[in-house]
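Module 6 notes. Inverse folding takes a fixed backbone as the condition and produces residue identities as the prediction. Think of it as a translation problem where the source language is geometry and the target language is the twenty amino acids. Below is one complete input and output pair. Work through it position by position during the lab.
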């Protein structure tokens, strides 16, 4: 089974992180490939960046369709271009945002999302409503960490995200946290141990969900 992850931004180091995270959790029968959308913006922070990313993202998905991948994952937490990408193939096309939401909801507990900048919050809130999961998500929180800081300044970024998770735990009445950026994919395990509750990364969630959807045909 071949699953293609497409990073809609043009930051190749983030694509490497996405690929490593997915491969670490992939079942033995899954081959994970990750591509960078080099025509996209360096980071997707808010609606404008998302709109700019759609056309080059669709080019990459289209190339993946031609190459015969079994499923496609859009590796941006905003689920950028998801509806448009689904028009290109009858095979499963999912986003890491929706995957993380559903994984959190299936734990039977309420959750909060910790994302990057405040400009990303409205898009994520709208996606939760569209998925029918806004009632189990207590809050979408901005950590104040720019997307690219996760690549260029990882230690302070992780501390800021961890601090926001701590505030979510104390204020929101939750049993899980969802990390709201693909660039946070490598933080989930450490933050889960640090805070003593599930911290869910959408890249890992999407890898498992994509395989399940292909298996179910």
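Target side of the pair, the amino acids:
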């Amino acid at each position: 089974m071949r699953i293609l992850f497409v990073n809609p931004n043009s930051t190749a180091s983030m694509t490497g992180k996405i690929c490593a995270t997915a491969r670490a959790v992939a079942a033995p029968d899954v081959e994970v490939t990750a591509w960078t959308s080099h025509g996209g913006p360096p980071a997707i922070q808010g609606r404008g960046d998302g709109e700019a990313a759609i056309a080059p993202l669709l080019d990459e998905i289209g190339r993946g369709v031609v190459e015969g991948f079994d499923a496609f994952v859009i590796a941006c937490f905003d689920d950028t271009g998801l509806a448009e990408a689904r028009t290109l193939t009858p095979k499963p096309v999912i986003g890491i945002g929706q995957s993380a939401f559903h994984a959190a909801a299936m734990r039977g507990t309420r959750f909060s999302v910790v994302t990057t900048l405040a400009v990303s919050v409205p898009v994520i809130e709208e996606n939760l409503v569209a998925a029918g999961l806004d009632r189990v998500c207590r809050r979408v929180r901005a950590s104040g960490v720019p997307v690219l800081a996760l690549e260029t300044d990882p230690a302070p970024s992780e501390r800021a995200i961890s601090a926001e998770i701590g505030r979510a735990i104390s204020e929101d009445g939750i049993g899980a946290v969802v990390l709201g950026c693909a660039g946070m994919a490598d933080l989930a395990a450490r933050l889960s141990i640090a805070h003593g509750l599930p911290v869910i990364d959408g890249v890992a969630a999407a890898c498992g969900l994509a395989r399940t959807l292909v298996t179910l045909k």
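Reference fact for the lab report: The chain has a mean pLDDT of 97.
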